[in-house]
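Changelog note: in this version the structure field was regenerated for every chain. One regenerated record is shown below for reference.
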Amino acid sequence: MPAAHASVIIIGSGSAGLTAAIYASRANLAPLVFEGKEPGGQLTLTTTVDNFPGFPDGVEGPELMDLMRKQAQRFGADTRWETAFEADLSKRPFTVRTTDDPSGDPSSGEIRTYTADALIIATGASARWLGVEGPYRGNGVTTCATCDGALYKGKEIAVVGGGDSAVEEATFLTRFATKVTLIHRRDELRASKIMQDRLKNFPKIAYAYNSEVQEILGDVSDGIPNLQGVRLKSTKDGSTRDLPIAGLFLAIGHDPNSKIFRGQLATTPEGYILTRTALAWKDADAPAGLLDELPNYGTSTSVEGVFACGDVVDTHYRQAITAAGSGCAAAIDCEKWLEARHV
């Protein structure tokens, strides 16, 4: 069976991917969207989203993503619950292979092959979890202080991590919480000296060094998880103690979902895809001269005709609204590129 062809394929269905789908479909590009094994992206793991414009009373994460999907479909986007597991960017049209297995396992489900004149990558980045969250994942345990910090006004909370991100999250959360405990498995933080010096100005921050979260404490009533604390295990002697808190924030890093593009696109050492916009960040870790080689579009990658947006690019903001904005930019860049090539 010959491969099905689309003018534009969008891989990913978070706020970046679906916004790209809205703009691409309104430009009559009839985009084909592969939603991946987690349709809707990370926002589907979030309860109330209070910082997305247009929702003064907040909106549930899954509801917001469903609205975006319906909007894209209304303009003609073809969204499919398939996961891309292989891509060939060596020649145009580009080739993408997918599976319809819900877990994204290419050894299961039906394998399908597609080609496209242009590709928009919006595969996101997965926050690292502890593995003990259970029902509290997204319900008391979160990975975004900016998103959820205000929910814990007047309460005691904790942050897991020891790097700059953990310190930034902890200091930000002191705006709301009465006490923030930094939990770190070593006897000192890994954060830069300037960040550690900043901590001296935040008396609300306490420290739990040489500690790991062994268990989440709480109960589930009427299907609603109620986090009440964490059990900490000493990394020195194995002893345990309970820390009463109302919320737990994880700041132990993210992993960009770019595995299928490794070796084909320029990325940072961590795997974040490099675009012209990303190269403008002062600490972008990129090969020398790459900026001169990229096509003159903000979301263009090192392969002409391939664009990237959202958290698979973003190492700085990681917000739904910034991801959506970059998805809009990617669709416009893609449209302009196709138009210039008379495709």
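Spot check on this record: The first strand starts at residue 4 and ends at 11. The mean pLDDT is 92.
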